[in-house]
Amino acid sequence: MENELLHYENICFRRDGRHILDNVNWHIEKGENWALLGLNGAGKSTLLSMIPAYQIPTTGTLRVFGHEFGKYAWPKIKSRLGFVSSALGQFQSTLDKQVVEDVVISGAFSSIGIYQDVSPEVRERGMQLFYEFGLGHLEGHCFYTLSAGEQRRVLLARSIMANPDLLILDEPCSGLDLPARERFLRTVSTLVEEQKTPIIYVSHQIEEILPAITHVAILREGKMVHAGLKHTVLTDENLSDVFGIPVQVVWKDDRPWVIVR
Q1: How far apart are CA 249 and CA 7, in angstroms?
Q2: Which of 2, 61, 179, 187 has the most CB atoms within 10 Å of its CB?
Q3: What is the model's pLDDT at position 254?
Q4: pTM of structure
Q5: Which of 88-92, 160-164, 236-240 is least confident?
Q6: How many Cα atoms within 13 Å fall on the side-chain side of residue 214?
Q7: How far apart, in Å, are the Cα atoms of 141 and each of 98, 100, 137, 187?
């Protein structure tokens, strides 16, 4: 398990007697960057929320960084994760009150906002990230005054403040217009290429799969129906079956685009 980042084995999750996830198996090794695809309601967010233990599997085995859930101190796992997710919406009222550079710096403490003394070294790293992500012109602004795209970039910078061993991006472009989406994706590309941080990118939009993504998994109705190298999984046949309509996959600069036939 030396090279193992993530391992799901026969994972099931039931809510109110209904199967949200059904016998999911998924394995990720170091050096791989994954996209997790699926239609709305497929179970993508539920599956990924198990990594920081926002959700607990009903049955099955989950290992993160080689450690099995229930047999290891999970706060140590959470401290090694970076997470940008719609689940952070539950903290929106707290985020809105924060000055944006403090939101970035708070990632070092896995908190929303700063509630303790910050060393000069931590503050320096936070401000360095703040400017590297093109946010310098927003210094001193409250989070709520930012556009949706700017807020996502702030949260992305926050997520890597603690140098995570795995970065999870759960539909980070949801609600962004085309220019904001492309700016955000360029930031993600630079991050992966320069810092070599492994990522899991969750979406239902095929065109968000960047060249840095090496593998793709597809969930359908709580079942893992495809998982493997992206060019093997993202075929006309597979995606037509998943979407329920005939589609064609067109590759441009190692990025896939879907055309409805």
Answers
A1: 29
A2: 187
A3: 95
A4: 0.88
A5: 88-92
A6: 11
A7: 8, 6, 9, 21
